[in-house]
Amino acid sequence: MINCVVGVRTQIRAGVKLTNTILMGADYYDEKSCSPSPEDGHVPIGIGEGSIIDGAIIDKNARIGRGVIIRAFPRDYKDVDGDTWFVRDGVVVIPKSATILPGTVIGPEIPEQMD
């Protein structure tokens, strides 16, 4: 972790790399978060194993799946709205209680594909 703020009850799993990120934490521990099982399709609260996050604000109770990659956008980039995330002033924001599915990639190259 480099230049990060980590809120209370944040669960960060093995192999996660965080840079320039704010994690708001969680209001509670959900039972399945303690022993995540990828077979049941449940994405536990917190940051999934092997994820790489650089330049994001992750609100409370968010669920980031395994192997997710989130990269900041250029500061002067237009605002972007994804289904479960958005970008303002280059910062990727994951709203409260949002779920980012395993293997998702969010970065500057994605908006052109969404048109």
Note down, in words, how this protein is organized.
The chain has 115 residues and is mostly beta strands. The protein has a single domain (5-114), classed as Hexapeptide repeat proteins (UDP N-Acetylglucosamine Acyltransferase, domain 1), CATH 2.160.10. 4% of the residues lie in helices and 31% in strands. It has one helix and eleven strands. The chain has one helix spanning 110-114; strands at residues 5-6, 17-23, 46-47, 52-58, 63-64, 69-71, 80-81, 86-88, 91-94, 99-100, 105-106. The strands form two sheets. Strands 1, 2, 4, 6, 7, 8, 9 and 11 form an eight-stranded mixed β-sheet that branches. A three-stranded parallel β-sheet has the order 3-5-10, with no helix packed on it. The chain is globular, with a radius of gyration of 13 Å. The chain starts with a strand and ends with a helix. Residues 111-115 have low confidence and may be disordered.
